[in-house]
């Protein structure tokens, strides 16, 4: 049997708040990649954007992280990573990917030297990974990486997982928004990492790729995944519904609904946050238009 490349999916975004669809993105992507026969998706990471991104209505990362953690309690393979939100300022997405890749290389015990035999036993692996994450310190020396090479069960291949950026089709479309992305960053994302893009009503990612020389050049590293059941949940619509006192049950997890109610997160006032402000990436590029905050 040909061995599969271990793969980690990383999604960047506001997650304001996390919705069921954000979690579905990971499930759809994993199914698609596993079906290629080439990959073993071992982990999903959600990286909520820093408050300094300055998007209209963006509530504090402390709350967005807490809500994402609550929502992901039921997942045995997707986790939220607060690193990006804890930085002093907004971090460009390619740097988030670079940071995650450095962790993979520099001995984060979660990833070092995968035991491929273990990887075949996905459930067992996920269980170990969970244990590892919650008791990282305790477990440091117990994960197969540290196992003796004499151990017949240990196949030390030292395979580093690939890291791919997971997004929805509207995210891909923002690549062409003037001054939002640096061309060399887009190139690095599709050349060094790779993209997994989930379809979304109103966006045609295949056409968009064909219109871009750069994206066409690295098409082999862009996976387009067709959502087999259309699900147009949007975090903005969720916030609007909450402000109007409408039910959002079955669109976001109950635990997140309770958290929002308890902390009174989404109000007319919170919707006015960063109003009229420039998105940080546009500010950095010194422009006067702000297509996303209107
Ligand atoms: N319904 C959806 N279908 C496909 N992709 C989605 C969907 N909802 C969110 N995404 C993707 O999830 C990632 C995070 O998105 P984001 O936090 O902006 O959520 P959102 O629901 O689009 O919020 P907002 O409405 O505030 O823009 C992005 O890559 C986005 O494209
Ligand atoms: N140049 C860049 O790296 C760049 C530009 C715009 C948005 N982004 C990222 O894309 C995501 C967009 O999130 P929203 O769809 O919620 O606006 C955020 O994580 C943001 O940091 C990155
Ligand atoms: Zn969005």
Strand order, biggest sheet? Answer: 3-2-1-4-5-6
Percentage beta strand: 5-15%
The assembly state of the depicted protein chains is: single chain
In this entry the ligands are: adenosine-5'-triphosphate, beta-nicotinamide ribose monophosphate, zinc ion
Q: Can you tell me the number of structural domains?
A: 1
Write structural notes for this entry.
The protein is built from 15 helices and 6 strands. The protein is α/β, with parallel strands linked by helices and 294 residues long. It has one domain: HUPs (Rossmann fold). Strands 3-2-1-4-5-6 form a 6-stranded parallel beta sheet, with helices on both faces. Helix 1 links the parallel strand 1 and strand 2. Helix 2 runs antiparallel to helix 13. About 14% of the residues have low confidence. It binds adenosine-5'-triphosphate (ATP), beta-nicotinamide ribose monophosphate and zinc ion. The site of adenosine-5'-triphosphate (ATP) has 21 residues, from strand 1, helix 1, strand 4, helix 8 and helix 12. It is an enzyme of class 2 (transferase). Pfam families: CTP_transf_like (PF01467). It comes from Aquila chrysaetos chrysaetos.
